[in-house]
Specification:
7-stranded mixed beta sheet, Purple Acid Phosphatase, chain A, domain 2, about 30% strand, 6-stranded mixed beta sheet, alpha+beta, 2 domains
Length: about 350
């Protein structure tokens, strides 16, 4: 007698019986790649996925090592997406066409800052990352950009699976399960002295923590989005200058965790304002976090958008509230309107706080 065992049964047998937790998501990468990623506790082999009816074994990105769980990846090409992508027994292929994207969500600085000695954040009463995600998903975005800083529970727990699970994976479960593609930038809390191991094992293209990762470009709806690594502060201006120098006339948005500039409590600019004078007109938008506030700053025809208000304690000691600055927890939504874009900042209750229009070459 010949025995046959279904893929879904094998998946349930191997992964469904594990007492640990698992997380999966789609992640946008350079070179027009879309990675399907899977992290699972208490299992040491990667599962299969079924792509257009054919089973494929996921690649191991990081082996379970006692400190961090197994991390797996399966790489897709956005120029040749399959018709079907089944994981477990579910069809989960995102409805994503990079040249037809109309709505992008932006979040940043999402972890709970419970270790800050002078004002620790109460993660049960003062941390609203999950609520922010729920409100953001009501807008039905086609992709989500995270501008960095995923983990804040530092000290001896800075680079542990517990920190990553509590600060990011558990509260972001609804976002991950939505299968909306994510574009993820590295923050200073993911440098190699902090949460860098988790960054490398779960979210990076690299398999080990590197002090610095080269920028990569993802194209969406006629625009290049350049994702930079500003976990090391001095690299920020070098990367922005390079992006500016090589720009060949294509509309470009830069994602960098550290902003080029922000407004302080007195309404004064902090940072390098002169760099905006040197940017080509095609460098339309800088998207950042790092400062825990929502701000829209227009300088010399360019917009610095800060969306660092999605979880970590707000920067009341650094910034204030004004027509272009809001100290409320929330997120951003970018609506692409043909040649123009509307960027709106919402609070965690989905109230519109402020908006700005980004026209072609401003």
């Amino acid at each position: 007698m010949k025995w046959t065992v279904s893929f879904s049964f094998l998946f349930l047998l191997l992964f469904g019986s594990a007492s640990g937790e698992s997380f999966h998501w789609f992640q946008l990468m350079g070179g027009n790649q879309l990675w399907f990623r899977f992290v699972v506790e208490e299992v040491d082999i990667c599962p299969n996925v079924v792509v257009d009816g054919v089973e494929h074994l996921m690649d191991q990105h990081h082996a379970a090592d006692g400190s961090f769980p197994l991390s797996c990846v399966y790489k897709l090409n956005l120029e040749a997406l399959p018709q079907s992508f089944i994981f477990g027994d579910r069809e989960i292929l995102p409805r994503f066409k990079k040249d037809e994207v109309r709505k992008i969500a932006v979040i940043g600085d999402t972890g709970c800052r419970n270790n800050r000695f002078f004002s620790p954040q109460d993660c049960k009463k003062e941390w609203f990352f999950k609520e922010t995600i729920d409100a953001m998903l009501e807008h039905d975005p086609e992709m989500v950009i995270h501008v960095g800083d995923y983990v804040y529970r530092e000290g001896s727990r800075a680079s542990t699976w517990t920190t990553w699970k509590e600060d990011f994976f558990l509260p972001a479960t609804a976002l991950l399960n939505s299968n909306i593609p994510l574009l993820l930038a590295r923050g200073n809390h993911e440098n190699c002295n902090r949460g860098g191991e988790g960054w490398a094992y779960f979210l990076s293209i690299a398999k080990e923590c590197l002090p610095y990762e080269e920028p990569y470009t993802f194209s969406v709806n006629g625009r290049d989005i350049v994702v930079t690594d500003s976990s090391i502060a001095r690299k920020l201006y070098e990367d922005v200058a390079h992006v500016n120098n090589v720009n060949n006339g294509k509309r470009t948005w830069i994602v960098t965790h550290r902003p080029l500039v922000f407004k302080n409590k007195e309404g004064l600019y902090v940072g390098n304002t002169t760099i905006f004078k040197d940017l080509k007109k095609e460098i339309e938008l800088i998207m950042s976090g790092h400062v825990h506030v929502a701000q829209f700053l227009r300088l010399d025809g360019h917009i610095q958008f800060i969306s660092g208000n999605s979880g970590a304690r707000l920067s009341h000691w650094q910034t204030g509230t004004a027509s272009d600055s809001q100290l409320e927890y929330g997120f951003g939504i970018i609506d692409l309107l043909n040649d123009n874009a509307k960027i709106t900042s919402y609070d965690r209750f989905n109230n519109e706080m402020m908006s700005v229009y980004l026209s072609a070459n401003n």
